[in-house]
Write a structure and sequence with these properties.
Layout: E1 2-3, H1 4-18, E2 26-31, H2 38-48, E3 52-57, E4 63-64, H3 79-82, E5 89-94, H4 102-118, E6 125-130, E7 137-138, H5 140-145, E8 153-157, E9 159-160, H6 163-171, E10 178-180, E11 205-207, H7 210-216, E12 229-233, E13 238-239, H8 264-267, E14 271-272, H9 276-285, E15 291-294, E16 296-297, H10 300-309, E17 315-317, E18 320-321, H11 330-335, E19 343-345, H12 364-376, E20 382-384, E21 388-393, E22 399-404, H13 421-430
Parallel strand pairs: 1-4, 2-3, 3-5, 5-6, 6-8, 7-9, 8-10, 10-11, 11-12, 12-15, 15-17, 16-18, 17-19, 19-20
Antiparallel strand pairs: 13-14, 20-21, 21-22
Protein name: F-box domain-containing protein
InterPro entries: LRR_dom_sf
Length: 447
Amino acid sequence: MRNTDQQALVERDLIDALKDMKGLKHFTWRSDAGPVLEEELWSTLKVLGVSSLRIIDHKACDFVGMSGSIDYRSFFESSNFSTFTQLTSLELETRFLAGFDVEDDNKYLPSLIALLQSNATSLEAFNLTFLDPDALVDVTQILSRLTFQRLREITFRRASCTPQSLSRFLSAHPSIVSLSLSPMMAGRRWEQFSLLADSLPNLMHLACSPFHAARILNGSESSSRPLFCLTGIDVRQVIKLSDYFDVEKQDAYAEDEEVVEVDTYEAEQPITAPWRDELFSKLRSLKQITHVALNENDGPKDLEVLAGLMPQIRWIDVGTKRKDASSKGSWPISLSKFPELRTLHMRGTGLYLDYLPGNKILNTRIENDIRALAQSCPKLMAYEDYGHSVIIRREVKLALEVQPRTEPKDRLKDGLWWPSESFVRATVRKNAGPDQPGPAVLDAGYS
């Protein structure tokens, strides 16, 4: 274990080195706790004019004081950190807020709100992740009290909020280009969440649950939104509410609202998805969406349903398969319904790319499977798993080539690659479109 004195020596070297980095714009702190020399570190970064911060604060501290007690230090407790100004990008990943302890939440949340208020005129990207896997933090205060003049990208993970605060926040931020929401934001009260048809006019990338999409998507064919990426939805007909909303977690309510208890029995009963009709009517009209990632599917028939709504899709991640496919032959038949399909990612289905990482040669069975897909989808150019792609070449005869997954700058516009977080940020900053992709960086994924 590293005691506080040892940690301070390490940070002294870091701070001395930072002082020579006159052009530094981005800083990442990744540790089990906040810094020991926190006031000096944050002051140094402010003097340097750092405008982009990423803080990963695990709370699994291994800094031991002289008494032997573990000293949990959160960056929320630093007065110097909370007065940081002129930030354009802020990413916070923390265990110090988890929604388990009202006293902790009341202790740390005001500091976070103060930091955000200090940067309300400059912040363009804000990503807030609560790291504890059981966390659910009510961010209603943030959504109700803050307005950012230049906000383009915002992400929440393991957060909840009232439907009214979510409606207010999104309506107040027409500049948002990339939006990612946790399922419990509005949660079971999703029907009380609403937006005007002309809200979010600059939205390009939406990552959310199907009930959010039913409310956020503009169903007008005349919509001028540049939206082309949609992730996190599904088109399942029969669902259980417990698949979307944790029965152990309560929805967020305002202080003057009556709390409705969760009916755990009803949550486990199969029902027709209550948002299905509204979602389908919106998807059917949105011809500009070409990149779709499903969260889950019930087999090949779900893809046929999606193809009936959005035959223009060029890139698809079919999501996690909930049920066994009736037969392997069903996948090519269903995927053939997407005549423009360029790239196929069958994440979580267990089909096709199960070779050892690093293999450059496909075994006969896998090769035959991909050839069947390529023959069913005449424009298919790539088949992907998490780390590798099989590039399909058709110059003379159909040929397959295994490659590590990369993201060439000139291929996103063809629907060949999924837009990575770096691409989204690049388009956010430049307000560019899908024909102006960002830097070639490996896909950082989504959740």
